Amino acid sequence: MNRLLVVASSPHIRSEMSTARIMAWVMAALTPAGLAGVYFFGLRSISVVLTCIVSCVVTEAIWQKCTKQKISVSDLSAAVTGLLLAYNTPPSIPLWMAVIGCVFAMVIVKHFFGGLGQNIINPALAGRAVMLICWPVAMTTWTLHGISTPTPLAILKGSESSGAALPPLFDTFLGSIGGCIGETSAPALIFGGCLLIYKGIVSWRIPVTYIATVAVLSLLLGRPGGPLLEIMSGGLMLGAFFMATDYATSPMTAKGQVVFALGCGAVTSLIRTFGGYPEGVSYSILIMNLTVPIIDRMTMPRVFGEVKTHGSK
Amino acid sequence: MSLKLPTFRGGIHPPDNKAMTAHKRIEAFRPAGDLVYPMSQHIGAPCAPIVKKGDKVLAGQKIADAEAFVSAPVLSSVSGTVKEIGMRMTISGSMDQCVVVENDGEYSYDATLPPHDDFKSVDPKECLRIIREAGIVGMGGAAFPTHVKLSPPPGKKIRWIIVNGAECEPFLNCDNRLMLEQPEAIVGGLEICMHLFPDAKGIIAIENNKPDAVACIQERLAERDGSMKVIPHEVKYPQGAEKMLIYTVTGQEIPPGALPADVGCLVINVRTLFHIWTAIVDGVPVVDRVISVVGDAIATPKNILAPLGTSVRELIDAAEGFTEEPAKILSGGPMMGISMRSIDVPVMKGTSGILALSARSARHLEESNCIRCGRCVTACPMGLLPSSLDRVVRLREYGEFEALGGMNCIECGSCTYVCPAQRHLTQTCRDGKAGVMAARKKAPKAEGKGEKK
Known about the structure:
The complex is a heterodimer of chains A (313) and B (453).
Chain A: H1 19-41, H2 44-66, H3 77-87, H4 95-110, H5 123-134, E1 143-144, E2 147-148, H6 152-157, H7 169-174, H8 186-198, H9 205-220, H10 226-232, H11 236-243, H12 254-274, H13 281-289, H14 292-298
Antiparallel strand pairs in A: 1-2
Chain B: H1 19-22, E1 26-28, E2 35-38, E3 48-49, E4 56-57, E5 62-65, E6 74-75, E7 80-89, E8 95-103, H2 124-133, H3 146-149, E9 160-165, H4 174-181, H5 183-196, E10 201-207, H6 211-222, E11 228-233, H7 242-250, E12 265-269, H8 270-282, E13 288-294, E14 302-307, H9 312-318, E15 328-331, E16 338-339, E17 353-357, H10 375-379, H11 386-394, H12 398-403, H13 414-418, H14 425-442
Parallel strand pairs in B: 1-14, 9-10, 9-12, 10-11, 13-17
Antiparallel strand pairs in B: 2-8, 3-5, 4-7, 5-6, 7-8, 13-14, 15-16, 15-17
């Protein structure tokens, strides 16, 4: 023995799971939905996805360089934000708009609040929300096979192309409908979501509760398309599996996750039914993000051996 | 399909790495060098030497003792001459007064403790006296004096004596091997405890990754009445933690600050029972223990029966040294073990394993931001929020730490193990507990509530 021994406090072994590995799995799980997007909407989707990923990573690196922080883009969290933001934009979005959305997401939403894990709302969704306000037409122009196509939810809302017929339910399921790059293909999103659940990266609680709540409320609120159309259209699958499950902006406790997902489902259905927008997934998640600290506070686990929950003191 | 085995909420599943030594018989070891006996090998008052330099001592002879009730004497593990009494480094890296004995290689035994053919004829008070004189402490690692544990406050009725054969720390096999090789003494030790507490039932709790040990103990129980039973439980860390084990086998939660006796339980490690048996029946005190010398940097991992006071270096040599330069050497398992500064230190009563980890296994990664994934919350067997505790400790908000239940932390390390951001959650909890204790000392009347500056 020539070297000095390392002296550190226990435990001395660590699980293999790291932040970068989690983010890599999320990107892998998102890949099928992206491939479906390229298949349905054409190669331009690829340039949007790449633009967003590169913008987010470069923005984070520049910000951290300027603020003299350690550059942490290798944890892949910025890349995941870019990927998700791209999936939440129409394939025809002008690339410069996507770049601005990414810069807003990274600087204002993520790093103004302290960076990874500290942001209070989902950066990708906040970026999308800002883009929707700034460029409402570009953000709601949907093209499928080169033809402008309204989304099923827009048809239900009757806000545009009134009188247009709903696409066949099977097309809605597969994703061969108008919509954002990564949100239309339910099988691809469900596959990716199940992969994350199987790998233990996200719990089933948020996606299952969220989707079930929307399905039940669509019946209660008498939505004309029925529960199946309701859960397969818009951003619900993408939102439930990949956006509402974002660690930083969802509750940490099992009970809290169910409460959060119930809230997401309720707000989504209310926006779709009574709101001015045809779709409500983004805003519902953003609104519920803001309730996470209080949900976490109210749903603290019971300390072993204690009769009363310490959260209720 | 197997039945669902009993367990607790939370916990983790680290790779158990038990295969290295699970099937290796315990090998007796005779040390060549001097034997070193620290005065503080147990929880409680340190001992003072009762021998002086130049004295001849016998194996099993008491060489240090204390007046205090919560203490246990130290015995020489070999016969020889007291060479020195002075400060030496111990396995935890701190300095302690030690008695150094030069081994004469004779192993002549002291016969102070009387053997008993029938332990049932021994008065319970006499049993406790023998247990104390034999230097028996909790051999699972905590080293709490056993005669104290077996003297619960009057009025506390003991209904269960739970034998801890969980051995949930990865790598270690010392308890597993003892159950396989000395089942009669372990069951006998339990019978002695039940002789002390006639109303108690005996439960032997064994983690289900040791089916041989379960079968072996079950075989011994088959010959006896039904007052003892084996409960195999789910393989999960920290199953061997006292609170988790009691919950698993009796369904009772120990309230914060309470003791096992408050819920009618006593938890005793298998090696401790073995010593209770040999002390009372054979008149043999604690002079040795089984130590798993193991790890991915050890050439030939072994389970060694080592005389107490043996140098760690000798044990590593007995396992044929290192295959590669170790990064860390631990006393105990990888989850709760202490990393050693030097291997020229003696093994003590509580040393269950010597674990040499390569740089690969003991990798030290840089902390990054908490991503709020909640893995620590799911893993915490005490139902705490380690990530929140970590945050408040770093802000020095000890009052908030206490309000969040931080004082209940058992330091099992599960939260740190699962943290993908490599945060030192267990360590910040230790800091938090120390901070609260310091604040309580400063303002004893404020009952430790609220932050003190």
